[in-house]
Specification:
With 477 residues, the chain is an alpha/beta fold. It has three domains: 222 residues, FAD/NAD(P)-binding domain (3-Layer(bba) Sandwich), CATH 3.50.50; 116 residues, 3-Layer(bba) Sandwich (FAD/NAD(P)-binding domain); 109 residues, Enolase-like, domain 1 (2-Layer Sandwich). Helices cover 33% and strands 24% of the residues. The protein has 15 helices and 23 strands. A five-stranded parallel beta sheet has the order 3-2-1-7-18, covered by helices on one side. A five-stranded parallel beta sheet has the order 9-16-10-11-12, covered by helices on one side. Strands 19-20-23-22-21 form a five-stranded antiparallel beta sheet, with helices on both faces. A hairpin with a 4-residue loop joins strand 22 and strand 23. The chain is globular, with a radius of gyration of 24 Å. The termini are far apart. The structure holds flavin-adenine dinucleotide (FAD). The site of flavin-adenine dinucleotide has 41 residues, from helix 2, helix 3, helix 4, strand 4 and helix 6.
């Protein structure tokens, strides 16, 4: 009896995770390496979920290929003679599928070689507040983390059931390069696909009612950067568009609606509906578990990502706060920690960077200038345009900039935006600086490798006027 009590007191907590996308996999690895026993359920998409199989990863791979093709057609350096034939999209997509599969296998290997992780490749749902079912088996748990992701909904458009619209997720499965593509609305990944198809030779048009998407999500710099990309790539953007109907006309589809209030129509080989994503939570048996959703169908969670059942937490796309891989993995680890330890951390979300994998890439971290001012900082900015940089001249990529946002009172960096090749890699130095409260004077003193793009960070940091109050400094290590 006594030994049973001891066993119960010291046994590792059992965390069940529903959904093996980037959120669920990150949480499973983290929880297992912190002593928990983990059961990870995944079904539907293979391990790795949307990011690896239909989202950012395929978009990035295809963008890299499209950029190689574009460079072959437009060499950057005098003295080179290259040319580009017609791209074979079917071969590119075969490669994309093979590489996604390799990543799925790597996730599988990492998780299943841990003695304290059980992988169950079946859909799971609650049968009561203490039990899950997957297939014929039931599972007890101490805590559950919900990371089932999201799925897309078609917009209400007359005739949509009689045509074959494409979701962004299916662009990576096209067997042949289309002559023309119309994107209905726009977001980060749609922008990547729009640019990559334009580079492969497709005539691309974006129809949008919401011309402010990039400004609302990432600030005015992102909006300007994306506008620059569409004009460079000859992508047509039609704003103030309201679509009413769609029909097939034999060699494609015709979209009908209004543009700026005037009747308009567009003919295209394919049209792509930019995802209206909704949490994939309807088959989880949430009522049985006492997990509430609000009137809009979104999980009710607190700052620590706990649901209305104290043993159940949620993270990733399932919580309906947007659809971003970086936030999904970050939140999932936070939720796992709050589930298995007696902590209720809300995290440091301002230091989570984002990236849009266009060419050049756009990446950011922390506050935009406008939001920093609204949050009470005395914000000012300093910019280093890439065309001032020896590295940019050497690699033939002069378009873009590094912009730093600091709080003048403390001299600390509170945000950064980069529009440059490899912006997603460059931003990490600035994410650390935001997270650990570096002063811009400290950043300016760092030496970057000579003739590197990172030199733009040092140059921008040195452009700030001295802080109005000297930086208090951080404790020495
Ligand atoms: C087309 C597309 C493009 C994107 N582009 C970008 C981008 O450029 N940048 C960016 O940051 N983000 C992007 N995203 C968003 C990013 O992919 C998601 O934010 C991220 O993948 C969410 O991860 P997740 O783990 O929460 O969900 P998911 O990746 O959806 O994983 C959930 C997993 O759980 C499984 N599952 C669901 N229900 C159950 C159940 N009951 N039992 C067992 N398993 C279940 C699902 O099948 C899936 O495998 C994109 C998404 C899409 C679809």
């Amino acid at each position: 009896m006594a030994s049973t009590d001891v066993d119960q007191d010291t046994r590792p907590p059992h965390l069940a995770i529903i959904g093996g996308g980037v959120a669920g996999c990150a949480a499973a690895s983290w929880a297992a390496s912190h002593g928990a026993r983990v059961t990870l359920f995944n079904a539907g998409l293979p391990l790795g979920g949307a990011c690896i199989h239909v989202g950012t990863f395929p978009a990035r791979l295809l963008m890299t290929a499209a950029t190689d093709h574009h460079r072959a057609a437009h060499p950057r350096f005098a003295g080179l003679h290259t040319e580009a034939g017609r791209p074979d999209l079917s071969k590119l997509n075969d490669l994309r599928r093979k590489t996604s599969e390799e990543l799925r296998n790597a996730y599988h290997h990492t998780l299943t070689t841990r003695p304290n992780v059980e992988l169950v490749e079946k859909p799971a749902f609650f049968i009561d507040s203490e039990t899950l079912r997957a297939g014929d088996e039931t599972f007890a748990f101490d805590h559950v983390l919900l990371t089932p992701g999201s799925h897309s909904l078609w917009p209400e458009l007359e005739g949509i059931d009689d045509v074959t619209p494409l979701a962004i997720a299916s662009l990576g499965d096209l067997g042949r390069l289309p002559e023309s593509l119309v994107f209905v609305e726009i977001n980060d990944v749609a922008m990547v696909y729009a640019q990559l198809f334009a580079r492969l030779g497709t005539q691309v048009t974006i129809l949008t009612e919401d011309r402010e998407f990039f400004r609302r999500h990432h600030g005015p710099d992102a909006m300007e950067a994306m506008s620059e990309i569409v004009s460079l790539e000859d992508i047509e953007v039609h704003e103030e568009v309201a679509l009413k109907a769609v029909h097939s006309d034999g060699d494609g589809v015709v979209l009908q609606g209004t543009r700026g209030g005037e009747e308009a129509h567009w003919h295209t080989e394919h049209f792509v509906v930019v995802d209206h994503r909704r949490p994939r939570i309807e088959h989880l048996g949430l009522d049985e578990a006492g997990v509430e959703v609000d009137e809009g169908g979104i999980l009710v969670i607190d700052e620590s990502l706990q649901t209305t059942n104290p043993r159940v937490f949620a993270a990733g796309d399932a919580i309906g706060r947007g659809s971003h891989a970086y936030a999904a993995a970050y939140d999932a680890i936070l939720a796992a920690r709050n589930a298995i330890f007696p902590s209720r951390t809300a995290g440091h979300t301002t230091a989570v960077p984002f990236a849009i994998y266009t060419d050049p890439e756009f990446a950011g971290v922390g506050w935009s200038e406008h939001r920093a001012c609204r949050a009470g900082f005395d914000a000012d900015t300093a910019v280093c345009p890439l065309d001032e940089l020896p590295a940019a001249c050497a690699i033939g990529r002069r378009r873009g900039y590094v912009k730093l946002i600091r709080d003048r009172r403390s001299d600390r960096l509170v945000g950064a935006r980069i529009f440059a090749p490899h912006a997603a890699e460059l931003i990490m130095e600035l994410a650390l600086a935001v997270r650990y409260g570096f002063a811009v004077s400290e950043l300016g003193a760092f030496i970057h490798p000579p003739i590197s793009l990172g030199e733009a960070i040092g140059r921008a940091a040195r452009r700030f006027t001295p802080a109005s109050r000297p930086h208090a400094g951080r404790p020495s290590p």
